[in-house]
Amino acid sequence: MSLQIELEHYRQTLIVRLQGELDHHSADTVKTRMEEAVMRGNVNHIIMSFKELSFMDSSGLGVILGRYKQITARGGKMVVCDLNPAVYRLLEMSGLFKILSIQDNERKALQSLEVAL
User: What start and end residues bound the annotated signal peptide (predicted)?
Assistant: First the structure.
């Protein structure tokens, strides 16, 4: 299965929706598209929605950590939301929850960043 990437700009937040499998085959594409969107747009925060993500391996963790470093260097925040149990466990075991905010859904993620409707 491949990965579909949807990027949406909402105010100063980049919302990234991933559908499919985030693995070593797709990680570079996600990394590049997110980096370009952050550099090109007026982006202060990133929300990554994993609602439709069926699988993620350590390459996905690298993508998340790299974009976290990129956005926090700009003074921004990163939030992940809509995690399925397998992805939640991977993020928990990796220790990323110590630095990332987790929310139930995109609306709560936007509210946590104080950029909600």
Answer: none
Q: What are phi and psi of 31, to 5 degrees?
A: -55, -50
Measured at the CA of 116, the angle between CA 35 and CA 100, to 5 degrees, comes to 50
The Cα–Cα gap between 103 and 110 comes to: 9
Range of the domain at 35: 3-111
- Is 53 inside any structural domain? yes
Asked whether the beta carbons of 81 and 104 are under 8 A apart, the reply is yes
- Is the pLDDT at 30 greater than 70? The verdict is yes
Total structural domains within the chain: 1
Tell me whether residue 74 is in a domain.
Answer: yes
Per-residue buried b or exposed e for 55-68, using 16+ beta carbons within 10 Å of the residue's own CB: ebeebbbebbeebb
> Distance between CA 14 and CA 16 in Å, rounded?
6
